[in-house]
Structure formats: structure tokens, C-alpha cells
Write a structure and sequence with these properties.
287 residues, alpha/beta, Cobalt-precorrin-4 Transmethylase, domain 1, four-stranded parallel sheet, binds iron/sulfur cluster
């Protein structure tokens, strides 16, 4: 079995920068990470062992007990920022600038009088942060949810890790079902997400199956899996080398390897090495 690595994969600059900031924190026990710093269990385990407190994403309404709160790369709303600072919390902000760009685009659309449509996953922390500052909004997850909106001015932004092909499809459906509306679209899918997806598309022509490495909660990782499956290529989503199931690879001659934007280089290399070891076993079983 041959392993072909995607030419673009793994950790994006937004996550790398967030990790650099957190690595400079001198007193981790005074800091609560407001949600999951990244959707990567390997990284989260390391942070917990350093002494950081972590608020579960679903429990962010509770005020952290520590004096310092670290905002993750996924960002938070201005409302949430105000709530934390007015409670006397000192903030360490690792919001990715490309998430900030989505907030700015959504607020500009709001100020221009648009009903804001956010293409993304309802309940995802990034999407929560975007909509919490809006009064007139709707989160669009799929075609079935697109309605004819009462507003005649529709402004569209996207979760940074949405798949561009889904965004294009949903944009068309929104236009079809709202023929009388003035629609303004701002493409806020981030460049690293687009580059990862394009790289997997290039890979698909030369592999029988794909291994996608990343946290189970990671939206962009799941989108990479979906892309492979939509193109008829089997894909398996693993968090680490330990999760590889040798039986899954039986019959595949060439396997592609890619990873989401919060996956450590070391985790990718461990999975790659495990695949190479596995390939020996797969080939010997085939003979
Ligand atoms: S995936 Fe995109 S938006 Fe999210 S942290 Fe990385 S670069 Fe920033």
C-alpha cells in the first residue's frame, strides 16, 4: 500500500498563532480557556496537564472562576466580551484575524440594513460568536433550510471553515427562493480551509481511499471527509495513529493522507508512519 500526502494539510496560521500565545502564558492555573482552544483532543490534553482550566463549549454561560480568560481562535461576540470584562476578567485574545473579518462583515451588513444569513453549522462556537451581536439573522446549514425570507435585503457571510462548494450551492438556492431580494454575498471562508479542500481534490484522482486526521469536533476536518465521500472515495476520520483499523485498508493500493487545520504536524507524521507499518501487514495478508 502506497501513502500519498496532500500537498497542503494540517495546522493553519490561526491555530499556530493561538498556540504560540498560550505557550507564553506563565501562570496557566490563573487562566480559563473559554471553550476548546482548538478542536483537537491531543492539544487539549496537553493544555489541561499544564494546569489551564477549561470551560466546556456548552457551559460558556457560566462565569469562569479564574481572573484571566483566554478567548479561543474561534472568537466570541462583542456582547460576550463585554460580559467578561465587566465582570473584571482580564482577557487573552487568540481570535483568528480571519474570524474577526467575518464578524466585521456581518456587522457591516447589519448596519447597512441587511438580514444576515450565516452559512455554517448552527451551534458551532464560531457561528455563535457571529450571531450573538446580530438582531436579524438566520443560520443556513443546508438547502432544506432555505426559505423565502420576509426581508428584501439579504446579506450572506460564511463560517470560515465551510466548504466552498456547499457555499456556492446554498448561495444559488437562496437566490432561487428569494428572486425579489437584493442579495449581498461576502465570501468569508478562510484561505487555509480553501487550500486544504483544493489539495484534497487534487489527491482524489490518484488514491483509492483517504485518511483524514483531526479532532472529531473539527468542522473543517469533517468537511474534508465529506468532500471525499461526495466524490465517491472512501474516507476515514481518525484523531491519532491509535485509531487506525488495519482491516479498513484491505484491498486499497494507494491511500491519501490529509489533516484538518488544528492537527499537529507530529500527529500527522505518527499517522503516516503507522500507515506505512500497516501497509506491510496489509500486503502480507493479501499474499
Ligand atoms: S481555520 Fe481559518 S479561520 Fe480558523 S483559525 Fe485557521 S485560518 Fe483562522
Amino acid at each position: 500500500m502506497r501513502v500519498v500526502r496532500a500537498d497542503v494539510m494540517g495546522m493553519c496560521f490561526g491555530v499556530r498563532d493561538a498556540l504560540k500565545i498560550i505557550n507564553r502564558v506563565e501562570e496557566p492555573q490563573t487562566v480559563t480557556i473559554h471553550g476548546q482552544l482548538v478542536h483537537n483532543e491531543v492539544v487539549l490534553d496537553r493544555l489541561e496537564s499544564k494546569g489551564f482550566a477549561m470551560a466546556d463549549e456548552s457551559a460558556r454561560a457560566d462565569l469562569p472562576e479564574t481572573p484571566v480568560v483566554l478567548i479561543t481562535a474561534h472568537g466570541i461576540s462583542d456582547k460576550e466580551r463585554a460580559r467578561l470584562t465587566s465582570a473584571g476578567k482580564q482577557l487573552i485574545d487568540t481570535t483568528c484575524p480571519l474570524v474577526t473579518r467575518v464578524h466585521q462583515a456581518a456587522l457591516k451588513l447589519r448596519d447597512e440594513g441587511y438580514h444576515v444569513l450565516v452559512i455554517g453549522r448552527r451551534g458551532h462556537v464560531e457561528v455563535q460568536g457571529i450571531i450573538e451581536d446580530l438582531d436579524s439573522f438566520y443560520v443556513v446549514q443546508n438547502e432544506d433550510e432555505v426559505i423565502t425570507f420576509p426581508s428584501k435585503r439579504l446579506g450572506i457571510v460564511c463560517q470560515t471553515t465551510a466548504a466552498s462548494r456547499n457555499v456556492a450551492r446554498l448561495r444559488d438556492v437562496i437566490a432561487e427562493r428569494n428572486p425579489d431580494a437584493e442579495i449581498k454575498f461576502v465570501d468569508t471562508v478562510c484561505l487555509p480551509t480553501k487550500d486544504h479542500q483544493r489539495s484534497v481534490e487534487r489527491l482524489l484522482g490518484e488514491v483509492d481511499a483517504v485518511v483524514v486526521v483531526g479532532g472529531h469536533n473539527s468542522n473543517n476536518t469533517r468537511e474534508l471527509v465529506t468532500l471525499c465521500l461526495e466524490r465517491g472515495i472512501p474516507a476515514v476520520h481518525v484523531q491519532s495513529a491509535d485509531s487506525l483499523d488495519p482491516d479498513w485498508f484491505a484491498g486499497y493500493e494507494t491511500v491519501g493522507l490529509t489533516a484538518g487545520t488544528s492537527t499537529l504536524d507530529s500527529t500527522i507524521d505518527e499517522v503516516h508512519q503507522a500507515l506505512l507499518r500497516l501497509s506491510v501487514g496489509v500486503e502480507s495478508r493479501a499474499h
